Amino acid sequence: MGETNLQIQVLISAEEIATRVGQLGKEISGDYAGDDLVVVGILRGAFVFVSELIRQITIPLEVDFMAVSSYGPSTKTSGVVRLLKDLDTAVEGRNLLIVEDIIDTGLTLSYLQQVLLSRNPASIKTAVLLDKVERRQIDFSPDYIGFTIPDRFVIGYGIDHNQRYRELPYVGVVPE
Ligand code: IMP
Q1: Ligand 1 geometric centre to CA of 78 (Å)
Q2: How large is the greatest C-alpha to C-alpha distance in the chain, in angstroms?
Q3: Can you name the residues that pair with 81 across neighbouring β-strands?
Q4: Which residue's alpha carbon is at the smallest distance from atom 5 of ligand 1?
Q5: Which of 69, 68, 67, 64 is nearest to 40 (CA)?
Q6: How far does the centroid of ligand 1 lie from the alpha carbon of residue 103, in Å?
Q7: Contact of 9 with 172, CB cutoff 8 Å
Q8: Residues involved in catalysis
Q9: Pocket around ligand 1: residues whose beta carbon is below 6 Å from it?
Q10: CB 136 within 8 A of CB 79
Q11: How far does the centroid of ligand 1 lie from the alpha carbon of residue 70, in Å?
């Protein structure tokens, strides 16, 4: 509504993302060859990454989603994550691949891993498109990482700022 777009700089182009997602898909297909696989996408930020990644995976899989939000105003440091939507799939005895847009402090992924571990899956691994490795507050290393990025606020490719910019085909930063 008359709001002008912020000036956005491309950090990772659509082509670079496509190439890397293709590599990750190939790697994941090899690692899980012959195994059952449930991709657990984390809403909303990861929905674009999930949709492209599964099309680069060449083994049979199922997809389900969870939604989480940080809880309260000081959430970035409180470590409290709220589950907004749970899986519909029973995961006991299955191989789970949690797919997230960004790992920052690591609190969200570590919470999700804990929640899912309590359901006795056969295995849990994690895939992130972006890793802000400098920001980590707890020791957490995703198994598959698209790109390591500096501590900048990013948008696009499913990732929002106040619910906007998810539709951009690239990962961008707003100049400070
Ligand atoms: P963590 O729990 O601190 O690792 O946070 C991960 C979540 O923080 C991501 O799933 C994003 O929703 C959000 N986040 C972290 N950095 C950014 C960013 O640069 N842009 C948009 N969302 C971000």
Answers
A1: 14
A2: 53
A3: 70
A4: 104
A5: 64
A6: 6
A7: yes
A8: 104
A9: 45, 100-108, 153-154, 159
A10: no
A11: 10
Cβ burial, residue 50 (10 Å; 0-12/13-18/19+): buried
pLDDT at 75 over 50: no
Angle at 42 between CA 38 and CA 43, to 5 degrees: 130
pTM above 0.90, yes or no: yes
Q: What angle do CA 171, 172, 176 make, to 5 degrees?
A: 150
Residues listed for the chain: 176
**41's tokens:** 């996408």
**If residue 145 lies in a helix (H) or strand (E), which one and from where to where?**
strand 144-148
**From CA 11, how far away is CA 172, in angstroms rounded?**
5
Six token digits for residue 140: 């957490």
Q: How many other CB atoms are found less than 10 A from the CB of residue 152?
A: 13
Pocket test for ligand 1, best of 104, 108, 115 (most atoms within 8 A of CB): 104
* DSSP conformational letter for 122: S
Q: Read off the pLDDT band of 74 (50, 70, 90).
A: very low
124 close to 113: Cβ distance less than 8 angstroms: yes
pLDDT of residue 102: 97
DSSP 2: -
Break the chain into its structural domains and give their ranges. Answer: 9-173
Domain 9-173 has CATH 3.10.180.10: no
